[in-house]
Design brief:
The longest helix is centred in the C-terminal third of the chain and has 17 residues. This protein is 52% helix and 4% strand. Strands 1-2 form a two-stranded parallel sheet. The protein starts with a helix and ends in an 8-residue tail after the last helix. It is elongated. Helix 2 packs across helix 5. By secondary structure, the protein is mainly α.
């Protein structure tokens, strides 16, 4: 990213997925955004996307293997959907906006 910025490209980040209970703490979000700034990021994109059910199933298998204690929390958070509830996403987005502002990164490409 530094090299692209040096060559004149507008650089930014898209830190998807932010993983609930694994990488969504204030400290982890701030570290991601600060690191992006250190590498020359000027903007951040959306935190969440939607994927087919098989992506969710594969991710749950990874959780089962490495973080089995989080399965109940994930099932409670995601329920039958592909994304967490709107309220969770809005809180995460607001935290990210504030951290981007703190580190001088635009929250969005436009």
């Amino acid at each position: 990213m530094k090299r692209c910025k040096e060559e004149g490209f507008l650089t930014g980040i898209d830190f998807i997925p932010v993983l609930p209970f694994l990488s969504h703490s204030d400290e982890q979000l701030e570290e991601m955004i600060k690191t992006a700034k250190d590498y020359g990021a000027k903007f951040s994109l959306t935190l969440f996307g939607k994927g087919p059910a098989d992506c969710k199933a594969l991710y749950y298998k990874v959780l089962e293997k490495y973080f089995p204690e989080l399965i109940v929390k994930y099932k409670s958070l995601f329920r039958i959907f592909f994304t967490p509830p709107k309220e969770y996403q809005e809180r995460l987005e607001e935290k990210s906006r504030m951290l981007c502002e703190k580190h001088g990164i635009k929250f969005g490409i436009l």
